[in-house]
What does this fold into?
Amino acid sequence: MPPGGRFGPGFLSEEEKQNRPKVTKALLRRIFSYLKPYWKQLLLVLTAILCSAILTLMPSVLTGKIIDEGLIARNMKALVIFILLSFGVTLAANLIGILESYLNTWIAQHITFDMRNAMYSHLQKMSQRFFTTNNQGDIITRMTSDISGVQQIITSTLTNIISNVITLTVALVIMFRENWILALVGIVIIPLFTIPTRSAGKTRWSITKESQACSDEINGILNETLSVSGQLLVKLFCKEQAEYERYETVNRRMIQLNIRESMAGRWFRMALSTFANVGPMLIYLVGGIIMMQLDPTVTVGQISVLVALLGKMYGPVNQLLNIQVDWIRSMAMFTRIFEYYDMPVEIENAPDAITPDHADGEVEFRQVRFCYDPEREILRNISFKLEKGRCIAIVGPSGSGKSTLINLIPRLYDVIDGEVLFDGTDVRKLDLAFLRRNIGIVSQETYLFNGTIRENLLYAKPDATEEELIEACRQANIYDFISKQETGLDTVVGNRGLKLSGGEKQRISIARILLKDPALMIFDEATSALDSISEQKIQDAIEPLIATRTSILIAHRLSTVLAADEILVIQDGEIAERGTHSELVGRGGVYTQLYETQFSKAAAAPAAAPDYSEGEAQ
Ligand code: ATP
It folds into this structure.
């Protein structure tokens, strides 16, 4: 949350108060470590702030000279000189101000650039567990709003503190030098200035809090009803009018709150101008008494200087009073960002990781045990071996742990006990990039980026030629579809590939894997029913694939099972049975049940389950 952002300046929300970050030396040191590379520019900014703060106060001091030495002394030359000087000083202060804001923005942008890159590269190293456990919105917020907040801290909070402290100090020194009694009067009335700001701030804060809740609700409605699946639901349940009314109600509440908020600002401005007048009047009064009755050496010019300087102190005092809130918010933001930086990288390359010359894609599980949470074991006692060129099918009831087992091979997770070997070496000892380069997974939920078919294919092999792309699409049985499209390979697949059917998406992802050309192919067959023609096309695409390379299939269809050399039946995280289809089918165990409930249905549909004999499959 940006400083002064969500609930307006001056006040912390209950949530913010409760989660007040602990500002430790270590935290500050860490924050300053980001500033360190830019110390030269920072030094320049500091000098600019100092100069512009002093120069901004100069016209107030010159006012005294204009009155005393120009107007009262009736000296035209002095009058013009001081007026010109005052103008020149203001111009210089503003020019320095421009330089200051340029430098500020430059530094802030560079620091956020560094932080964003560091965060992005750190997040990319995070394990699958991190992404499944953490809310995606939260990850994005930290990457975007929180880091943008840091930018605001540097461009506003930090410079405000420095420039306000300098302005106040310089103003006070000049005031005391001009006349200490009047300076004291000025200090006494300063707190008066802050009353309207704080009370208007309070009202605004409560309205802002309400309108924030309102805007969250609006966003919620928009997110829910304007998403692809949300719209579908609304349409199919004919809820357009109901949703419109829900939206309109909240929208109306929002405008009322906005009007109230803007009026709170109006009262605030009125109170401010009234109070701002009280200070000068008091100084004129006390100054007049001193000048007329106590000390005739006090001049009108001196009194005017004090009034002018007092006016210049109002802003900095208020800003400094609010800065504590900005400060706490900034620290909270840094703490949130550092929390992510500090999360250990769970899956890392071993320091002495091995990168073999080539891969056969052989896999062996030895007594593997795995759980996502310590309380619940997902896989236990898993041992099997897949030799080069062979194909294993994994079957089992939904939720039995099939996908989990697969995830252990490319090290999306690491085993708790036991070992997973790739070409005879523990995967934890292999170079991660080597391992993942040699494994291709066609997962159940095919993910395509929003782009063209070509872009999605080139993701696997950026330097693939047109011929290679076409050949891969041919083999994946998707080329017919592509060539029928007006724009061919340049057809846009839409948001997450939603413009394509499930079967088309899966065939494109098969083409993508073909281009990657991995030693080990893993195919996680979609559980969702595809029509028999699509299914046949996919089947035809993977058949030659598995015939030529080492592969693992998570199978939901008989045709796929029949194509494998060995079937592993997983139940409750264990290998309950293993063997070929003909060995298992008559055994009366889990496989028989699966066959009767799931596979035989598929077998009944002739196009979906072609008559592969085991011999053919091998
Ligand atoms: P299906 O055939 O339906 O895809 P599956 O056999 O592939 O199922 P898995 O996805 O491996 O099953 O899931 C096994 C168990 O692990 C399930 O009970 C599931 O709830 C749990 N599980 C899966 N992923 C996670 C995760 N990221 N965190 C915690 N538990 C998980």
In short: The chain has a mean pLDDT of 83.
